[in-house]
Specification:
Number of strands: 9
Radius of gyration: 17 Å
Oligomer: single chain
Largest sheet: 6 strands, parallel
Strand content: 15-25%
Bound molecules: 2-phosphoglycolic acid
């Protein structure tokens, strides 16, 4: 019998894989997620960085998405600064945010393209903030957030009225252009959407289903899942 690993064990596996990327190619371009799913992975990255003295100084970091019209403390830039960039002592010049770079896709391309992008999945099938329906041909763009995404993220805001309705996100093509993709899904509430996304037809109503088109997708879950 194969026992599913715990969220903590899986998060550590992802952390090890991200660190291997940097050890093998120190100037890698990394696409980084926010939200609840990667928090444990970031803790393991910090711990492994201390233990192994990992040098992140040549790596370039790209946030996957960002809210529009929100204050600094709620921004994904702040999330990444506090959970990743600060603790890993990464210089500000190596950290990019889709809100402050006019052509995010050109910037990524001109630096050689994303080497590894880590993703979570929303219960409505979104990846980054590519909400259903999303065109396969999308690059970085602005989006209206769905009610289900706003509900899911309500807990991070003091009141429902200040949950942003808009965001900017890497598009499907931006994500599919990444040489490696890691998709993480934790909790039984993510199992059904992951099954539909990766085993059902490719469907603009399930943006994560486009990941079936990527040749180098690695899936990490804390429940039993195989393709
Ligand atoms: P979560 O969000 O990690 O907070 O569950 C995942 C996502 O929306 O991509």
């Amino acid at each position: 019998m194969i026992l599913a690993k715990s969220k903590d064990e899986v998060s550590k596996d992802v952390a090890v894989s991200v660190i291997s990327q940097i050890t093998e190619k120190p100037d890698s371009l990394l696409g980084l997620p926010t939200g609840r799913t990667p928090l444990n992975m970031y803790e393991h990255i910090k711990e492994l960085t201390r233990k192994r003295n990992v040098d992140w100084s040549q790596a370039q970091f790209f946030g996957l998405d960002e809210y529009l019209d929100t204050d600094r403390l709620q921004s994904f830039k702040y999330y990444l600064e506090t959970n990743v960039y600060g603790p890993l002592k990464i210089s500000e010049k190596n950290c990019s945010n889709p809100l402050t770079i006019v052509n995010y896709d050109n910037a990524i391309e001109s630096m050689g393209g994303l080497d590894l992008t880590v993703l979570g999945i929303g219960t409505n099938g979104h990846i980054a903030f590519n909400e259903p329906p999303t065109s396969e041909l999308s690059w970085t763009h602005c989006v209206w957030l769905t009610e289900s995404t706003k509900d899911a993220n309500m807990e991070f805001f003091e009141s429902p009225e200040i949950v942003p309705d808009k965001a900017v996100t890497m598009g499907i093509q931006t994500l599919l252009s990444s040489r490696r993709l890691i998709l993480m899904a934790f909790g039984s509430h993510k199992k059904e959407i992951l099954e539909r996304a990766l085993k059902g037809p490719v469907d603009p109503l399930i943006p994560a289903s486009y990941l079936q088109k990527h040749q180098n997708l690695e899936i990490y879950t804390d429940f039993e899942f195989s393709i």
